[in-house]
Specification:
- Strands 3-2-1-4-5-6-7 form a 7-stranded parallel β-sheet, with helices on both faces.
- The chain has 8 helices and 7 strands, in the order E-H-E-H-E-H-E-H-E-H-E-H-H-H-E.
- The chain is an alpha/beta fold.
- Helix content is 44%, strand content 15%.
- It has a single domain, classed as 3-Layer(aba) Sandwich (Rossmann fold).
- The two termini are 30 Å apart.
- Nicotinamide-adenine-dinucleotide (NAD) binds next to helix 1 and helix 6.
- One of its GO terms (molecular function) is L-xylulose reductase (NADPH) activity.
Amino acid sequence: MIVDLAGKTALVTGASRGIGLRLVERFIEANAAKVYAVCIDGEGLAKLKERLPQVETVQVDLSKWDETVEKLSPLDPVHALVNCAGVVEYTKTGEVTEKAFDFHLDINTKACLNVAQIVCNKLVATGQQGAVVNISSIAAQKHPPDHLAYSVSKAALDHLTHVLAIDYGRHGIRVNSVNPTVVATPMGVKMWSDPAKSKPLLDRTPLGRFNTPDDIADVCLYLLSDKAAMLNGVILPVDGGYNLC
Ligand SMILES: NC(=O)c1ccc[n+]([C@@H]2O[C@H](COP(=O)([O-])OP(=O)(O)OC[C@H]3O[C@@H](n4cnc5c(N)ncnc54)[C@H](O)[C@@H]3O)[C@@H](O)[C@H]2O)c1
């Protein structure tokens, strides 16, 4: 299936590396009229701009609500949004600090709401339709050890997907979650490169492997395309069947 985003504007958060970077490249390959790459990482965005000058970059710390509104509100209407920026640190039950909890909720949940509202409100105001994908995690449903704050932030994100799917769905804007197991990115390497941690997970995965960034990008492109015209409010595991076991 070839996804064609001709005439559409796309925006990806967390675009400097990992899944977000691959999404930017795939949006260009899919002929998107304009691609916004949004991220906190100025150096990563500069490298991206050097390689792909047609991409419009916006540096912003998405945990800062007002700054995000200020920087993203002036952009053109966005028809395909992927809320991909995310953070994870080990948080062990009994030792979770307020700072660690807020850190995960601010970026993995609140920022997705803020960006989705900015994008969707503009579509509604201009009478246009579009689609949003929130990159969640299998951790929203199955809780890996010592991931309390991350798991809660992603479970809240899935609920946010449901509410936004209802409220913006009435305006023709679809909102879905994509929930990967481990993905081969800097985040995936940081959390799962120790086989003692990753092997139990892999052993429970019927397909016997983790994700590549393209596995996730393929699903996002499908959900954002007209081929998924009736998919709204879906929480979609991309996990090789891990969720079943
Ligand atoms: N890698 C995995 O194993 C995995 C598994 C399941 C879900 N996910 C989810 O996929 C998404 C992308 O993960 P990844 O593996 O590409 O991660 P990554 O760490 O490789 O990249 C994260 C991106 O988010 C950006 N970012 C972080 N904090 C930010 C902030 N405050 N403001 C703006 N940008 C910020 C980073 O600069 C970077 O570009 C995340 O939401 C993550 O939770 C990843």
